[in-house]
Design goal:
The protein contains seven helices and 21 strands. The strands form four sheets. Strands 5, 6, 7, 8, 9, 10, 11, 14, 15, 16, 17, 18, 19 and 20 form a 14-stranded antiparallel sheet that branches.
């Protein structure tokens, strides 16, 4: 175990990183690198590295289980804690850089949970002319991803809102983890090569580790830049990595930068993490070529050991070596550019904003995503984790709906679109949203609906979100790929129907669905920056 970092303790749901070191005698012996360790107290990790800053779904649990096959009842570690443990193991020397440096994580993809936005057969749609079915299907279908929360439960009986948030954040979580692991690898290699960390990087100096990173021998990776520098003021650290990664037969370029600003107060710091990754796609989406570039930026602020604020942005741009990192970060303390929301992005813009307590992950989270720049709306998931009982069980509430376009959205839900891509579709926002109250299962870690009345999610895939049975409209509500078993009892939705329209709508003094969510349900947007 290296002297500059030691694993402290698990507090409730999360891990706090601390620093260990010698007590400091008059004549300290050389350490295992041959350098004389300092006699003063070790520098806290947050002075040079972002402690407790991760882009992770707050309801996600680790997919790792010590080699055992996962089941619904398997006890799992919160993903936030698992990711911190991985970073700590690299910084502390418990795992070598050769085992921890996994550039393939930069290419992880987001996806939809099986309970959300299914591709669904339908016939005789009431809002427009139903097209003929394709040759390989008995009926036309509504495209996948365009319906909201359709079933209450996802895999392992998770509440669908939780399952969808976990699925949509899987890719960006992996990308962020690998970006941080890249920076941690620089520190680890510096120590492995005899640097007394962080004392040997003096204010105003730069430590070039390019040859040392290449000497690690990471498969299919060649580094062209690997630097750590400190500002002349001594409170700003800059890390830069540029390398190529041969994925299958293609050599792809990747760059990672971190600008970290510390203060004299422990746990008070700010920083900007960015990355740019060349990639190849099977389908170019809004690009004329399969060559794309992934851009990501994370602006983070730690106000104390119990209050963190951050915003993460990611998107694909057309071509290799393309950057949308052109918007100046909103900060008086650090410089640099975040990913512009009005840039030349082409596909899959994700925007995650959070304000939370790292000791237990209680806080406010909003995640918005948009498939392409020509879409008029974002899809939005808001989650508030509210309380932890005496047993350590977390409860909260989630909301899903549609918001403003990605270039202007603040993460609020502006309404609902029930017929996004069906015949005669109308994208006028109706004043509805979906809701699920969440309770963590202490045995498995999954977040489940709190009770039988915890979910308000039911609607019909029409412009009005209802259907009164006046036509011959059928749709596959039970998702069995068959319409012959659908009846008025399963497709008629609305007042006086067998299936009631069951979504949130404004009540009391609220005139909009967002006023209802904030004033009546008590959710507020996370405070950023």
């Amino acid at each position: 175990m290296r002297s500059f970092l030691s694993l402290l303790s698990v507090i409730m749901l999360t891990l706090q990183l601390g620093c260990g070191g010698s007590s400091g005698s008059d004549d300290p012996p050389p350490d295992d690198t041959g350098t004389i360790p300092p006699t003063d107290a070790p520098v806290a990790i947050e002075k040079y590295f972002p402690d407790n800053i991760l882009v992770v779904s707050p309801t996600a649990v680790s997919e790792e289980s010590q080699g055992a096959k996962q089941t619904k009842s398997s006890h799992k570690t919160p993903q936030y804690l698992n990711s911190l443990e991985r970073i700590n193991a690299l910084l502390s020397g418990d795992i070598p850089v050769l085992d921890a440096f996994e550039p393939q994580l930069f290419f992880s993809m987001d996806f939809n949970a099986n309970c959300y936005g299914p591709s669904m057969f339908y016939d005789n749609h009431p809002d427009g002319v139903t097209p003929p079915p394709p040759p390989d299907a008995p009926y036309p279908s509504l495209p996948g991803g365009d319906l909201g929360i359709w079933q209450e439960l996802g895999i392992y009986d998770q509440a669908c809102a939780s399952a969808q948030l976990n699925a949509r954040m899987k890719g960006i979580g992996d990308q962020n983890l690998m970006a941080l692991m890249s920076i941690a690898s620089l520190i680890s290699v510096a120590v492995d090569n005899g640097t007394s960390w962080p004392e040997d990087v003096s204010p105003g100096s730069t430590l070039d580790l390019t040859s040392q990173m290449n000497a690690v021998g990471i498969t299919a990776v060649t580094f062209s830049q690997a630097n750590i520098s400190q500002s002349t003021s001594g409170n700003n650290w800059h890390y830069q990595l540029v390398f190529s990664f041969t994925r299958e037969t293609e050599e792809l370029n990747i760059g990672v930068n971190l600008n970290h600003q510390a203060t004299d107060s422990d746990a008070v710091y700010e920083g900007l993490l960015t990355f740019q990754v060349d990639d190849l796609t099977d389908g170019a989406g809004n690009c004329s070529t399969t060559e794309v570039t992934r851009n990501g930026s994370l602006h983070y602020i730690s106000d104390s050991a119990t209050e963190v604020r951050l915003q993460y942005r990611s998107a694909q741009l057309c071509g290799h070596g393309t950057s949308g990192l052109t918007e100046s970060v909103s900060s008086d303390n650090i410089s640099g550019n975040v990913l512009s929301r009005s840039s030349n992005w082409a596909n899959n813009f994700s925007l995650f904003t959070a304000e939370f307590n790292p000791e237990n992950q209680l806080g406010l989270y909003t995640f918005a995503w948009q498939a392409g720049p020509n879409d008029g709306n974002t899809r939005v998931l808001n989650v508030g984790l509210e309380a932890v009982n005496n047993d350590g069980q977390v409860t909260g509430e989630s909301y899903f709906g549609y918001g403003d376009a990605i270039d202007v959205t603040n993460g609020s839900i502006q309404g609902f679109i029930c017929n996004w891509a069906g015949p005669g579709n109308n994208h006028t926002l109706l004043q509805y949203a979906q809701r699920q109250h969440l309770t963590q299962n202490l045995s498995s870690g999954w977040f489940e609906p709190s009770n039988s009345a915890a979910s308000d999610i039911t609607y019909a895939p029409t412009n009005s979100c209802t259907y009164d049975g006046s036509g011959s409209f059928l749709y596959d509500r039970d998702l069995d790929n068959e319409l012959t078993d659908e009846t008025s009892d399963t497709v008629n939705v609305g007042e006086g129907q067998v299936i009631e329209l069951d979504m949130m709508s404004p009540s009391g003094d609220a005139t909009t669905i967002w006023e209802h969510i904030t004033n009546n349900r008590g959710f507020n947007l996370p405070d950023y920056p």
